[in-house]
Specification:
Blueprint lengths: L8 H21 L3 E5 L3 E5 L8 E6 L3 E6 L4 E6 L2 E6 L3 E3 L7 H9 L8 H33 L12 E5 L5 E4 L16 E14 L5 E4 L16 E3 L1
Antiparallel strand pairs: 1-4, 1-7, 2-3, 4-5, 5-6, 8-9, 8-10, 10-11, 10-12
């Protein structure tokens, strides 16, 4: 069998008188307690009771001076006059509490989704830096691939035709490269002498009667019939 005990009126009265005792000590000592608003907004009334005239409002986290504490309605100083607010909506203010004026700068610098303007600038700057870096890497890779794929045009080899004469067999031929030494009729191999590049000037040697068309005066040494040619321009 369980026995239920009703809450004694003595306990309630004790709490009430204890609270009044604390208020009396504060008033007697002449100390105004600092409290701050623990709700979004607090209505200040001209007298006790919800039907009393509203003389103003106090913003959240604003501090007020409490001059009288009651069960429900506490008296505060509001615009140099007495006002009444619900005591349950007040909390004792710590020393480091920030008032709305102190927090206005932080709130103004924050965006609606909770990121501060400074943080957003840092994030955007970081994203732009990454984009620029990626573009630089892509450009570098493109330039490198272009260099690897580039093939310089092959140098065109210009071959100039020259007159050659064998000192042994007197044979004279035109070629753009040095002739083969094989096949000489007077010796084991040809001994070719480069007389000069092919041209429009006609010369004849008085010693060996060789006639050639060259661009400049032919070379004199290597005549088959003498040590030197004796060229005559025709």
């Amino acid at each position: 069998m369980f026995i239920t005990r009703k809450k004694s009126n003595v306990d309630v009265s004790f709490k009430k008188y204890f609270l009044l005792l604390i208020v009396g000590l504060l008033i007697a000592a002449g100390v105004d307690a600092k409290y701050y608003i623990a709700t979004k907004e607090l209505k200040v009334r001209a007298a006790k009771g919800k039907k009393a005239k509203i003389i103003g409002t106090v913003k959240a986290r604003s501090t007020v001076d409490v001059t009288e504490i009651d069960d429900v309605w506490w008296r505060i100083t509001y615009n140099d006059q007495d006002g009444y607010v619900q005591g349950k909506l007040l909390k004792e203010a710590p020393e480091n509490i920030q008032t709305p004026e102190q927090t206005s700068v932080d709130e103004a610098s924050r965006l609606p989704f909770g990121i501060s303007t400074t943080s957003l600038i840092i994030i955007i700057g970081s994203i732009l830096a990454v984009i620029v870096t990626i573009r630089q890497i892509r450009n570098y890779i493109a330039r490198r691939n272009a260099r690897l794929a580039y093939q310089p045009p092959a140098e065109k080899i210009v071959r100039i035709t020259h007159w050659y004469q064998c000192k042994h067999c007197s044979a004279a031929i035109k070629k753009d490269t040095e002739p083969s030494i094989a096949g000489c009729s007077q010796s084991l191999r040809h001994l070719w002498i480069n007389l000069g590049p092919l041209g429009n000037l006609k010369y004849i040697c008085k010693n060996c009667s060789t006639i050639i068309m060259v661009a400049e005066e032919p070379r004199k040494d290597g005549c088959p019939n003498n040590d030197e040619h004796q060229w005559k321009k025709l």
